[in-house]
Amino acid sequence: MTRPQLANQTGLSIKTIRYYERRGLLEQPPRTEAGYWLYGPEEVARLRFVQRAKLLGLTLEEIRELVELAARCNEGEIVPRLEEVLEAKLEETERKMAELSAFRQNLLHYRERTEDLKDRVPTDR
After folding, report:
1. Distance between CA atoms of 50 and 56, rounded to whole angstroms?
2. pTM score, whole prediction
3. How far is CA 103 from CA 53, 57, 110, 111, 112, in A?
4. Residue 124 to residue 44: CA distance in whole angstroms
5. Residues 15-64: tens digit of each pLDDT
6. Angle at Cα 13 formed by Cα 12 and Cα 18, nearest 5°?
């Protein structure tokens, strides 16, 4: 698929795809004789991984490192650093989830208090 097709399939802009290529998150694929870049399902999967990782709060540099480590593992290279990075990210994700859960509980508590206060306020009728 061409770059515009890749953009359409992933919901990313062409500019973002080029930026990710410059940052090393996506390798530049081969070109056709007409000069078009041709992308495959691997690039779609990688861009979706980048999108999910960004949602989880990873920086582009952290994502690039994970992508590189995973690619080296896929090539049969044993990469102990990958396990270390993944474990650290899992711990950080668990911590963030706990913080968000606690924050959610606070919001629910204040919403309940607000509703109680509304019930107590007399209306002018």
Report:
1. 10
2. 0.62
3. 22, 17, 11, 12, 14
4. 60
5. 999 999 998 898 888 888 888 889 999 899 899 989 988 887 788 998 88
6. 105
Residue with structure tokens 């359409």? 8
Side chain identity at residue 22, one-letter code:
R
Across all residues in the chain, what is the average pLDDT? 86
Measured CA to CA, the distance from residue 18 to residue 84 in angstroms comes to 29
Q: Which amino acid is at 111?
A: R
In whole angstroms, what is the distance from residue 74 CA to residue 113 CA?
53
Beta bridge partners of 37: 31
38-52 b/e with 16+ CB inside 10 Å = b?
Answer: ebeeebeebbeebee
Q: How far is CA 83 from CA 12, 73, 91, 108, in A?
A: 29, 11, 12, 37
